Amino acid sequence: MIITNAGPLNAPNVTMTTTLSLSVVLQSATSSQGTIAANGSVLVGSFGTLGVGGLVTNSIIVTPQSAGTITNTATVTSGYTDPMSGNNFVSLRNTVLPLPVLSVRFVSPNGVRLSWPVQLTNFVLEYKTALVAGNFWSNSTSTPGISGGENVVIEPATSASRFYRLRK
User: Fold this and answer.
1) Sequence ranges of the domains in the chain
2) What pTM, to 2 d.p., does this model score?
3) Hey, is 71 helix, strand or coil?
4) How far apart are CA 144 and CA 114, in angstroms?
């Protein structure tokens, strides 16, 4: 997050306030000028005076605890009234995808059910018959169906070995 002062005056006592989503855990918060302090899910940055044309670069790193949309908002203020206060607020949205976990299980009478989260639209199911160097992965020719929030492929269970993976 970059904070800039477009003028016309120096901005004293510049602060930023942001409230983190309850679905994230704060890992770090750093700034190119001043400090950022955490109090629970609220972060307050104190950056001192920001000259005309000056900027402060902030980095906030979080670990999401679940898949979904995370919205983060931040407000910047200073000791002077800003004649362009409409640009002192930002709202950012990020989408957290589930882990690309491939689930494999036997289904009666002679099938293997492969499934992965439906949100992972940019992953391809691949297989190979042996895990040896030089043996390339092939795309599965089965078209996934959707069942209960998962992409699902049913492959025949045979005596031949098959190794599967998801590739982005």
Assistant:
1) 2-96, 103-167
2) 0.67
3) strand
4) 9
Three-state DSSP at 85 gives: helix
Q: Which residues pair with 106 in a beta bridge?
A: 112
Which residue is listed with tokens 């400090």?
35
- Cα separation, 72 vs 20, in Å, equals 6
Class of domain 2-96: mainly beta
Rg (CA), the chain: 25
Report d(CA 33, CA 48) in Å as an integer.
8
The DSSP-derived string for 43-54 is EEEEEEEE-TT-
Start-to-end CA distance of the chain, whole Å, equals 28
Q: Please name which of 71, 12, 20 lies closest in space to residue 46, comparing C-alpha atoms.
A: 12
Two structure tokens written together for 61 = 């790193």
pLDDT tens by residue, the chain, 168 residues? 899 998 888 999 999 999 998 889 999 999 999 999 999 899 999 999 999 999 999 999 999 998 889 998 999 999 988 888 888 999 989 989 888 889 999 998 888 999 999 888 889 999 998 888 877 999 998 899 999 989 999 988 888 888 999 998
Question: Are 112 and 154 a contacting pair, CB within 8 Å?
Answer: yes
